[in-house]
Amino acid sequence: MAAARTEGWRRTLRDPALFATVITFLDGGQITLGNLVAILRDGNHRQAFWNSLLLAALVGLCGTGLGFLYAFAAVRANLSRAWITALDAASLLPLVSPPFTSAIAMIFSFGPRGLITYHLLGIKGFTVYGLHSTLFSETLTYFPIAYLTLKPILAAIDPNVEDMAFSLGSSRWRVFRTVTLPLTVPGLANAFLLLFAASLADFATPLILAGNSFPVLPTQAYLQITGLFDLKGGAVLSFVLLVPALVVYLLQRYWVSRKYYVTITGKVGALTTIKSLAPWARAPLLSACLLLAGVILYFYVLLFYASVVVALGANHAWTWRHYQVIFTEGLKAIRDTLAIAGAGMPLGGLYGILLGYLVAKKIFPGRQAMEIVSMINYSLPGTIVGIAYLIAFNDPPIVLTGTGLIIVACYVFRYSPTGIRATVALLQQIDPSIEEASQGLGAGSGTTFRRITLPLILPAFFAGLGVVFIRSMTAISATIFLVSINWTLITVRILENMTELSLGPAAAFSILVVVIVFVVIAAISGLLRRFRTPGALEVTSILGG
Amino acid sequence: MPRFGSWLSRLAIPFLAACVLGWGAAPAVAADTVNAYSIWPENWARPMFQEFERATGIKVNFVRFSSGEALARVIAEKNNPRVDVLFGGPVETHAAGIKEGIFEPYKPPTFNVLPPRFRHPEGQWVAIADDPLVFMSNTKFLKEHNLKAPASWADLLDPAYKNMIQMADARTSGTAVTRIFSVLEVYGRDEEKAFDFMKKLRPNVQLYTKSGGGGTLPVGLGQAGAGIFFIVDALDTKAKGYDVAISFPKEGIGTSAEAIALLKGAKNPELGKKLIDWAASPAMQSLFAKYKINFVPAHPEVKIEPSLAEVLKGAKIFPIDDAFAGANRKRIVERWINEVLNPK
Predict the structure, then answer these.
(1) How far apart are CA B155 and CA B137, in angstroms?
(2) Chain A residue with Cα closest to B340
(3) Which residue of A has its CA nearest to B23?
């Protein structure tokens, strides 16, 4: 361990996974497989492992499906601007709030005395804890990632391409199946991978909703560390999670790389109306989207209600007291969080497009390893990332614990894969002939990058920046170990408030986070429109591209 | 979402600028500041620390963590401690820390006045409060099932409670460990009988919660029928306005001391010692009543607040034997995980 610490600090900044690996195989200075074997032999851990895989796969499938539905409706249903804004706003809500807020709303709604199950439907003895509610909550929380990944990809498919198929006599279903769907395959694979990884790393939702009958590994790892003070055991459990994350990543890469999907050719055809959706299909599609938006809105109305009554379920007198509390006692947390998110935002955006560009464009040795490492950083349970950062930077030569910088670094490295993958996905859609044309006209590679490639991948920059900002405002699992006397975070305060039975301040903090993130996102999108290079890709959403 | 209107972007530029400026302004640290991790919830720790500052002029800079998180953090920071004092938390947290060598023994002036169970013989920790367990049930649930508030451990086995009891998970919660050792005491430390009871109780348990007070809100709302909690959490639920009944088993129930400890390698040991002196004395413990904190004071000269004394009247409460619990904690918790939580 001591050797690992002195040698490991340098690489841990980039790769806490490596650190987890080192701890996994080091047992008193001797490399051993014993730790891993001991874990695999334990029936409960094996069960938790399979449960995690099942949950992640289901969340990936359901979330990607919902995301596609939403994106298809937004892009192909000829919706008015007001409609799209409403869809965007509803889908953003789960993304911009701490993950456990929807879990708490679930407990209120679906328990033995839940608002919906008991008071509305009259069901007695409904069990809220288990796979069904964890899946439901995680799908609702993470499907916006799929939506934001798929929407720009669908939007980038030139309707003229579909038109050609129509004019050749294809039916709508055939066009959807043979043109639209194959063109979105890289997006679907990306979305599934992101959701799978997000679910695999989420410990907060199962902690509240999975109950005792459906243990999952991230929660077990968290309990192993915080409950049994067993850092090594927690690291081993987390390490086991790397294997499925890696397998899905490789599968997706192998599968996607065989598809050919250049749609931005630079040869602009005449604008055409979108007719890929049959009139009869429009109503059910929109109803499904509205239902989903309704469920999300209901959760957040409940949350808002909890923030303006004295005590939800006991005393429903109106009060602003909880907001007074968070703006006096909680002011430091608000200030710290804003400062950290503000610093991490531009860094995360830059890091995302730089790495994404390197991965997609320049063939250099180790680029795959680089991409894999950055994905692992994202799919590793936050608990172990947090502990790894804490140990690596507590002792000289680099002492960072207790600073705001360590939290910023953690957010930037952990949440940049969205930007990286958005960059890669966008670059793969750009015909190399555009850049070749620029170079053919005498522009250097620097000029070509600045004038051609950069404007085209600018949406990815803002996607990366937006996600880092949102995560800085909402994530908890890694940074719960990195907050300190000097730097604290709103999300940590929310979790504390919940365990302290102060539901009101917790709800008020959550509402505040949602409002701040909405304002900042709207502001970035305003800026983006002002500075947009003429002729660049239409920016449909600053998060998705 | 460009459609939100550009007036928002006009608002946002100064906002973003404020973020960047806020980043530069490092928090100022006064000369007389002691740093602490508090396991007590912030709404109890904050008034205590404000009173301490008023009394001594020393400011307490603190963050709150649950006992498991606080201990994991202190152990991880062992070589370069960030705080001087670990404040509050059930004593088994501190007992687990002794093995890791994270504490600096210190005996405050009140050390010899405290009953032996409220102090570690070498001064690794001292107690600042006592916290008995209670049964807490939802009044409406009791009425619906024609039940009286449980007055015996066996009452909890009633089929009416099936899937309706919440209590803490022994892997993370000191509350749970105290509860399991209570059951052991009730059965005269006959492990077989005690575990037999816990296994019989298992079908009635809806959820083992991460934190000790995790089940109080579900019980308050009626999502669960009853639970076993520390008295501070139970009385706090009642004070919030939830309709709950508090009762004690006639066989008796355990209590756990809340402790404070000085960390080895603390940067401000003298200030830390002053905080311990104050917390282990009537100066702090007589303030519990003023701030409606329902801990039982550890110092024998501080009177129990009358309404708390009323709740405790007639209750059979026994201390958990420190040496026995320390020696058997790991084994018992593992057995609980294997036989009660995840029965084969």
Answers:
(1) 12
(2) A212
(3) A339
